[in-house]
Amino acid sequence: MSKLSFRARALDASKPLPVFRCEDLPDLHEYASINRAVPQMPTGMEKEEESEHHLQRAISAQQVYGEKRDNMVIPVPEAESNIPYYDSLYPGEFKMPKQLIHIQPFSLDTEQPDYDLDSDDEAFVLKLKKKMEISLLQFEEMIDRLEKGSGQQSVSLPEAKLLLKEDDELIKEVFEYWSRKRKSSKAQSLIPSVKQEKRDGSSTNDPYVAFRRRTEKMQTRKNRKNDEASYEKMLKLRRDLSRAVTILEMIKRREKSKRELLHLTLEIIEKRNGMADYGGEVMAEVLAERALVRPQIIPLVPLTNQYRHQDHTDLKDYKSKPEKCEVPRQKRKYEKKQKALPLSAGGAHHPSLFNAKDLNQYDFPSSDDEPYSQMLSGSSEAEEENDPDGVYAFRRRAGCQYHAVRQDSLGSWPWCSPSEGSLSQPRFRYSLTSLTVPRRCLGLARRRVGRGGRVLLDRAHSDLDPVYQELSPERQDLPPSPPPPPPVCERVPPLSTDTTPERPLDRHWHTDLTHLLLSIKACRWRHFRPRTLPLSQLDNAHPLFRRMSRRTKPPTTQPAPRSCPRGGRGINQPPVQVLTAEQFQHHQEQLSLMKKQQLEQAQQHHPPLSGVTLDQASAQLAASALVTADQLLALKSKDELPPGGAVNGVLSPSGVYKASHLSSSASPSPAAPAPSPSALLPSSTASTAPHSNNGTAPHSGSAPHSNSIRVGALVPGKRLHSSRTLPSMGPSALKLSHCQKPKAPTPAPTAALSLGPRENHDQEKGTLNSLSENTVAMEVT
Amino acid sequence: MADNVDVVEGCRLPVLRKNQEHEDEWPLAEILSVKEVSSRKLYYVHYIDFNKRLDEWVTLDRLDLKKLQFPKKEAKTPTKNGLPGSRPSSPERERKSLDLNVQTTTTTTATAPSRGKTLPAPKRKAEPPAPLAPQVSPAPPVPSLPSSAEASQAAVYPAARESTTFKSREDHEQLTSLTTNGTAARRLIPPQPGRKRKANCGGTDEVWKSTLSNVGVVLNQDSQDSSDGIPTAPRMTGSLVSDRSHDDIVTRMKNIECIELGRHRLKPWYFSPYPQELTSLPILYLCEFCLKYVKSLKCLQRHLTKCNLRHPPGNEIYRKGTISFFEIDGRKNKTYSQNLCLIAKCFLDHKTLYYDTDPFLFYVMTEYDSKGFHIVGYFSKEKESTEDYNVACILTLPPYQRRGYGKLLIEFSYELSKVEGKTGTPEKPLSDLGLLSYRSYWSQTILEILMDLKPDNGERPQITINEISEITSVKKEDVISTLQYLNLINYYKGQYILTLSEEIVDGHEKAMQKRHLRIDPKCLHFTPKDWSKRGKW
């Protein structure tokens, strides 16, 4: 067989190759011709260079001799290694550390100037040294700053003075020297540096440009994903930063105001000094006078925070009825005084300008606005005491969209007259109404559902009002009740529906009020709906609760107004056990919070806008009220609603607030038009809110001025854009409605408790009394 | 004797130089630039077929004007006025080859002489419009082109055709100007339009292959640079570029005369983009430890009062005796990395400094004495290499060359790869010295293994290429090429075997005796980092 015709297999890198010594294989040369089967590998050099003379010579030499001979090496330009001044140039010794050298990151960043002075500079500095003080390093630092301060354009002398901290004269000298030197230099900068790329990309081919940034990173999929995430992060960062900017701006304003306050205080002190008011008596007098004239707190915090302050002051204004209002105010002032006075009284003889009061004044709010928050919290306590309707306070929720008032849907509510394009349903007509607690006859009134499920009574004025009042069963107990406020009630009847005169508040009533409230609160507790107990536990539950759950089973149309004993005081002791103390506490907190926020909202906007937006709570309510089961199903399919499992999460049945939601949302019958979720603003907002319904009647002034009557304002329901707002509601609202769905066909227990009767047309009149009870109760809590 | 005005850029003629034996020789050289210093003309010459590092400025008396060849027939008009930095119109290549195609009757081969880089634009008397010369660097003074024109082809074509009748390079010194012209110039400047070049090179390469087969040189057809068109920017990975970037005449010429570094004075071999204002200095001074460049000794003295570095600013990851290695992150220590690259570029032709140093680690080898840790050499390494590169650039500074440090650097790079558990290979292209060093290292490493193989219970010892690769961390391809280069692979009785000849064994043993400097893996304190998990480098 011919060896040459034999075709060798390719070299297999994973196949073992036996290793021979050539002397062991005498016949090897016979096989040599087949070696070319092994693929030749590239050298990895540029072709053009590979053939260079010296390389080839060296390669050949190596192959021939097995090693390079000295004259066969590739020649290179020479290098010298005998710099004579080396030792003086690099003075000192460096001892080798025992350990391997580890460098801390950034420890290398020294503050030394990059500029190194040359002989010219040295001559200049030495010359300059005769005139003024300057060291070589200082000179270098100055030049370094000037160089780094200038880009294409050199810095000017004024700029240089800003850059440098040395004496003006020195700066001038160095600056002149520097600019002369810079002008005569061909280079861009006196600190030589490698040319940078130009932004326009024109430097692509400039061989002196080096170390360009790798702008176009090679994109891999991994990176792309990151980009999206990082983009979002950047967005968030931007938001946060702009928020920080806002905060800083506010801080700036605050500090400015503080400075102003300081100046004012200083002025006062000076004036007092001038009039020798060392004891603060004059001051106290003036303060007292001012308080009498105008009980106004000068806002400490300007503009952005102003609304908070205003609502604080307005709150005060409202809370103290005009003739009374000085009392708490002065009290507050005097409180401060009283703290101060003992001291100043003692020190009244000596001429010290500073008494404790003054010290106090200098104790400015730093970052926390402490006094301010104290005031707020103080007032919120007061609210809980005196102001009973925080429950329905408007509260802005994060994630909720609030829409502006729809002016076009004016009067589309069931109780509006046909002239306003509404149904004017008989169940909303005015009828003679009396309340159980307090027992008295209101005259003509109609009731409707307000925001949060409250029942609102619209009263109408009629000539027969005095007669109606005679009808009050407990007439003799009542103080002579004043007539309803004429300005409100004399309006055209359909329009007058937006005011709900409340209990007349005179002194007698006021003292009685706390008592009344207490009893009402006691009754109110029954409105709390505890978390639904499992059936097994129902037997152990409170009798009332058992009754309630029993009632849910049969689809009952029977109203249960009287079966729920809530009316008479003392008739039924409140089942306190249903509510734990914590729940109650929590509830109270919620109430105050909500009320505060509602007030803020009300104050923040101009009166006509007060009802512009909906809080999430009312949105939820609206959604639940408007959406029928069918709609819900449709909605559910559209939005990714989690199946009803979320019920408990959403319905935290911890208080009246939620319970009343439940009650109203459970009520809608598919046939009936949705009850309009209108809201009764707490009467505390009377000063700003009453006219919100109807821009045509400006009453803002009148309400606070009336002594005998507080006008409750309705934020009209029409502000809620009925079903159209649904899509824009947050998922949570829909969730809420969704979870209500199973209950819709049957009146929920709470519905039976509080509002169920209203839905029953037949019984309308018969249940009015109990209804009014509800009304009062709910407003109170 | 011809008037010296005639010697312009692009001219070729024998130039006197001393060889290593200090004998006179007259290799053919090309004039790359002409300048006038104190009314004496100086010519920057590139010795054809010699490495660029030997290019130099010579005086007129070293030129053999009798054998002067002009770049074109009628290049009577002096191109320009001898401004420093003047250069031939190399960027004209594209237009040139176009013209060639139009005017030539010998079709394809004609483009091979694309190197006629010095050719003026035919038919163009004035300066070429900028758009036609996109790769001209804007920086240096605009060269004036040899203006007259028409004729250049005549000189070029013969050369082109000659290139196929290649003579072995051994006798190139005696070659007449015409015969060498083609290949030499071709080597000098790779033709620009990639496709054409490929097509044309095919022919010549074949000739070479047959001519040079005795030394086992194979020309790889697809080098990385054979793409199309003009490069706008080099690739982002790696630190070496193909010859393409050298089209610019500026980068073909050394720009720094001398560098003083510590106790050494170095003569740069290649262009390096130090700030342009420093290139005119007779000596550029570098701080030995931070490698900062300053313009004068005074500045260096001032700098040394402020610079307290006595070692490269990185972590020492290896120390044995006086030899240490420092690891420097090109992202964290940009200034030092850039300074290191700048000086390295002086000695590495293909190194590119186009992009920043962020994706690289720099391993600086130092030798300690009482003054501190003096830099001996370094290699750079991509933090993440897509192509199994374990070295990007590698350099032993000239004063330390030919003393085993290069091999030490290479050995260290493979020790790192061993720790990483990878095989690696140096980034291409290799320089001539790089090829020799690597071949030498590979040969010794592989032979060491082969000679240490002991007969396995009477059986003849055997080993696979993969095993060699695993043990040494040398990439499989490099193992094969080394085995081939050493001529160890033989086909014997139906299978491949490795044969160790006596000369090989002897040579290896001799070489190993001389190799004192070795890396001791026990002294290496190195934990590889997974850079892919660290975000951007």
Can you give a write-up of this model?
The complex is a heterodimer of chains A (781) and B (537). With 781 residues, chain A is mostly helical. In chain A, 43% of the residues lie in helices and 5% in strands. Chain A has a 3-stranded antiparallel β-sheet. In chain A, helix 10 crosses helix 19. Among the domains of chain B are: 11-67, SH3 type barrels, CATH 2.30.30; 256-429, Gcn5-related N-acetyltransferase (GNAT) (Aminopeptidase, 3-Layer(aba) Sandwich); 433-519, Orthogonal Bundle (Arc Repressor Mutant, subunit A), CATH 1.10.10. In chain B, strand 7 and strand 8 (264-266) form a beta hairpin. The model of chain B is unreliable at 74-231 (pLDDT under 50). Chains A and B meet through strand 1, helix 1, helix 2, strand 2 and helix 5 of A and helix 3, helix 4, strand 8, strand 10 and helix 6 of B. Strand 2 of chain A pairs antiparallel with strand 8 of chain B.
List keywords for this structure.
heterodimer, A: 781 residues, mainly alpha, three-stranded antiparallel β-sheet, 43% helix, disordered N terminus, B: 537 residues, alpha+beta, Aminopeptidase, Arc Repressor Mutant, subunit A, five-stranded antiparallel β-sheet, four-stranded antiparallel β-sheet, 12 helices, Chromo/chromo_shadow_dom (chain B)
The averaged pLDDT of chain B comes out at: 75
**Looking across the biggest beta sheet of chain A, what order are the strands in?**
3-4-5
**The biggest beta sheet of chain B, please?**
5 strands, antiparallel
What summary fits the major beta sheet of chain A?
Answer: 3 strands, antiparallel
User: What is the C-alpha radius of gyration of chain A, as a whole number of Å?
Assistant: 44 Å
Q: Tally of extended strands of chain B?
A: 20
Radius of gyration of chain B, taken over Cα atoms and rounded to an integer in Å = 25 Å
- Give the overall average pLDDT of chain A: 63
Question: Regions of chain A with pLDDT < 50 over 5+ consecutive residues?
Answer: 1-5, 299-385, 475-507, 524-535, 544-577, 606-614, 625-630, 635-781
The computed structural class of chain A is mainly alpha
The greatest inter-chain interface is formed by:
A-B, 108 and 159 residues
Total helix count of chain B? 12
Identify the CATH homologous superfamily of one domain in chain B: Gcn5-related N-acetyltransferase (GNAT)
Distance between the termini of chain A: 114 Å
CATH topology of one domain in chain B: Aminopeptidase
* Strand numbers in spatial order across the main sheet of chain B: 11-12-13-14-16
Family (chain B): Belongs to the MYST (SAS/MOZ) family.
EC number (chain B): 2.3.1.48
Protein name (chain B): Histone acetyltransferase KAT5
GO molecular function, one term (chain B): peptide 2-hydroxyisobutyryltransferase activity
